[in-house]
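Order emerges. As here.
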Amino acid sequence: MYLENTIQHIVKSAVSELYSLEVEFHQIQIQKTRKEFEGDLTVVVFPFVKVARKSPEDTGKEIGAYLQTNNDLIVKFNVIKGFLNLTISQKYWIKVLNKISQLENFGTNHDGNSAIMMVEYSSPNTNKPLHLGHIRNNLLGFSIAEIQKANGWKVVKTNIVNDRGIHICKSMLAWKLFGNGETPETSGLKGDHLVGKYYVKFDKAYKAEVEALMAKGMSEEEAKKSAPLIQQAQQMLVAWENHDPEVYELWEKMNAWVYDGFDVTYKQLGVDFDKIYYESQTYLDGKSKVEEGLSKGIFYQREDGSVWADLTEDGLDEKLLLRADGTSVYMTQDIGTAALRYADYDISKMVYVVGNEQNYHFQVLAVLLDKLGFKWGKDLLHFSYGMVELPEGKMKSREGTVVDADDLIAEMIDTAREIARELGKLDLSSEEEIENIARMVGMGALKYFILKVDPKKNMTFNPKESIDFNGNTGPFIQYTHARIKSVLRKAEEQGIAYNINVNENVPISEKETNLIQLLASYPTIVREAGDQFSPAVIANFTYELVKEYNQFYHDYSILREENLDLRGLRLVLSATVADVIKNSMALLGIDVPERM
């Protein structure tokens, strides 16, 4: 951005001097020169053609000649129709490299006086373990939080655990009926896996009951409502809300199993939270807000006692807020949680990382909060992302056909270890190093493959493609970082010292210039990723940087370069590229190895 601003200033002076025209900075359009043309930056000439009274080509040539004559920043120019392509001096790019290489937090903004952004992600249910869909959610949420920190926000990472409701009671009831006292210790299963097992058992038994009732002549809808298991689960939910001691004790015990299991998975994924809210602790606040809205006439009550919001005038429909039996729904909980959060923190921006199947839910939530008098309601941001599937298709948790997060993580690490051994990348490593690298590469492959995709799009996760050491993958980027670190270690071993201030007169190639330009664009990329809430912007920039570096590495000698100044530049350039790779991958929650 600094270079573009500088060019805008000198173009403004040129237009003023040549045509006696004072232009505003926003009228001077600067863009990166297209790859098929020579140059670094392009000035759009068309806005000045009328006052110049010349053709676009002649106007461009006149401005270009003025810039080259009056500023040593511009060494060459060419004009293609109404576009003035400027070539920036090599000295400038070396100055840029010298500056970047000495900045500790290049590309990030940590001013310490920022406003609070709260980012909610994960939001698991305590009736089943985390699965592939949760992985995308957690990775997106964590990365968005890190990117916003890099853009100067004070970020609070939060999780709302859905630990109550009919789905939780289904697992509890199934364990009570079919569990025979089974525990994580007696079964050898992680707690979340054990509870998920009984959620599946409930569904199978419930379906059998529904089929039996339909065989006796009931309609499917009647059978689903009349099945003994679902009625027992509903009774258990009412008992829980009334704090029945036996039900409550069972709920606390099974939830504790699940939380222990979740903690292991979160640690494996490398994600964390600053504050965890629990639906069981927020739904009552939501109920009181709904009852308050009912008393004020904002909501209405039907004959069966259920409470509803009529949002038809807002272009939405009618929304259930409290069931006839007085139990709350997700929307009630979200109202209560939002109110608590704004009481706990002075939030300037609230971001919900939730899949796109909940788009309507968050439209409704924003309107309801606004009607209840929370003026920040309409400012809530639902970060809506697409679903993730496997090549085989969709997953269904009730049928037990989900891709379990723990299983997938273990598979990725095992595959990384096998492939790295086959490629000979771990030949000189100790067993401890092998395990660390396998974990780093396996998790890097998983995270990068998911985060490089535009988050708004549905995606198919292919484990085999993700762990390739070539192409747009995490392992390819990680290996490049390790390769650069190897070059720097060899320089040190050979006693090759290099000055962090590169000689500005050293001649550099087009590839070296391209690399410095890419490095210089990193702060802009971080801002763009923050503005768009898109880790994919960071991921794909990092791939471009790595691809460009590998071409440079292939074409030019570093340690064997005889020109000491040029060798020094290439070492500084390599070290700076490694730093930016490490920092950009950290924004994705990905570690990079020092050796591989």
The chain has three domains: 2-88, 121-389, 405-587.
